[in-house]
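Dear Dr. H.,

I hope your travels went smoothly. While you were away I took the liberty of generating a structure for the chain from your last submission, since the lab meeting agenda had it listed for discussion. I wanted you to have the full record in hand beforehand rather than looking at slides cold. The sequence, exactly as received, is reproduced here:
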Amino acid sequence: MPPVSAFLRTAAAYAWRLLVVGAAVYAVFAVLGRFHEIAVALFLGLVVTALLSPATRRLARVVPRSLAVAVCLLGSVLLVLGVLALVGEAVAGESTTLLREFRAGVDSIEEWLEKPPFRVNPNALSDIQSRLGAFLSSHRSTLLSRALSGAGHLVQVLAVLVLAVFSSIFFLHGGDRQWSWFCAQLPEAARERVAIGGRAAWRTFTGYTHGIVIVAATNAVLVGVALYFLGVPLAVPLALLEFFAAFVPLVGSPVALAVAAVVALAAKGPLIAGVVVALIVVIGQIEGHLLHPLVMSRAVRLHPLVVAVSVVAGAIAAGVIGAVVAVPLVSVTWSVRTALRGAQSPDEQ
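The corresponding predicted structure, in token form, is as follows:
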């Protein structure tokens, strides 16, 4: 038998190690998939803790810690409910006007498509409307059953939110003590490295959370002000959509602004819709060249290609939730690796 080359032995050694790592990653995601509601609740609890911990620490200097946690959590809940009430009032106040403008906008779009260069057959457009109505009539029972199943999903969402708030209470009140207790249960040789990795992970996670909230709020304010002055209906709900969409880097903001462009096209015509499309480009440039370098450069030191691949991979693996969690997960993993390499002695390196 001829001798095996050194290159083949090295490739085989790396291949079986990669298989083991791949199997471990698959097993982790399989477990998380089985209990994804708990994982999402704990992630949201960590997000709330990262956002409220600075205010809680400052307030705890003058009042007991428990009271500081209660005040911060209740204040944040009231703030969220107030924003939702504002959005609901805006939708209710503009619903009649929006419906009238939307119908007029749809008619103008149909007339626009019938003219050059598109020259769409008018019968085709009316046929689409009739088919849509027939589909809704024939599948009414199916849509009703899906709506009822959506009520069950609503119960799951409420349970996740309750668990997130419940876990954030304990994280805010005694997260440091809980982490110290966890490290104390580990073998003595691993305690220091786990503590270093944990500090690096939390520092990166809090930096990312604060940064992405600032970026999302800035985008939402810019979009809301621009849509308001352009006269686009539902400016406040669309700004709120932009706020939540910004939590998906590189992808969420353009998608939310595309929705705003469709509303502008139906309600105000092609000219205003073109201005909204230009707004997509402007806000993308502000986010990519100003906000991210200034606000998030310290927390997220990842190449834009890595961010894009992470978002797409997270979306494939776990949908919208995966797209939101992917970038902070990769950032935390990279920061832990960097911190542990820096903590190694020269002999270990």
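Two observations you may find useful: The chain is about 85% helix and 0% strand. Residues 345-349 have pLDDT under 50 and may be disordered.

With kind regards,
E. W.
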